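call fold(seq) -> tokens
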Amino acid sequence: MKRRPFLASVTLLALAFCSLPASSAFAAPAQPTAVRSQSNAGGGAVVVRKGKKVSLAPTAGPISTATKAKLTAAAPDSWTKSVYTYGPITLQPGDWGDGWVNCPSGMVATGGGESNTNVGGITVHNTYAMVNGSGWEVRITNRATAALSITFYAVCYGGLTSYHQEPAKALVGANTSASLSASCLSGDQIFSGGGWSDTTNTLIGTYKAGDIYMGWSFFVQNFDATAQSIGAQAVCGTGVTSRFVETDYTVIAPGTNGFARVACPPGTLVLGGGGGGTARITDAYPDGEGWRIYGQNDSQQNESVLSMAQCAS
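ret:
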């Protein structure tokens, strides 16, 4: 599927980010109880290959009994956090896929994403929390000329006192771009967010609209000849205090790729993240107690990428 360079979105997304205030400094609280083990909590992916759907089985079994025991043993007045992965799976050139990671029973997805073995080879279309926080799902296309290995991530929390997914919907016209925001309920904290579209012929940016705003914005560039429906999602709740951090822009030269990584302050744990800029987003995922995002510059001028994270204390 031929795609045009990601130029039409430059002005809109750059203006959206220019309006974001810098995050304020804050004291690092004591670190809460956390389970940091990485394991496969089950998941799956479906790809379209030459018009035929092919299911890919998980490469590892469900979450281990030992990890389950650690999660269940957590004190009722504390919360726990773990990052779970699915994959790696192989995606052939030109194929697209929906990959997801399930959180174990008693935990909900506050963030998630994907990474791959060829920076610049992947286009991300959708990234969002699944129904009731059961996991995190991402839709991607392999634009490269060779097969790629993809890993999917879900940041899962237990012990939260409430959890909500607040959606927003809109229609994006043919060959145009749009930014859509979803807001948390009054009294909630913003954990992270994402969004989706009805087509694989879109490019995205996903980001929090500033330090004070309790919501999430989702940006889509629609390259289809017809209008497409898009949705934004804010992942919200209570039980932790959510803090916002972001990086400066990383400048990416024409025809190259680059990344931005933001670290959560000491004593805090990552809830979720996102970012954007003017480059095509190819990877966005939890990186230790922080968030990493990659962008590919398909144009003939400098472009940029920036990383954002929500951190729990």
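Residues 1-41, 45-77 have pLDDT under 50 and may be disordered.
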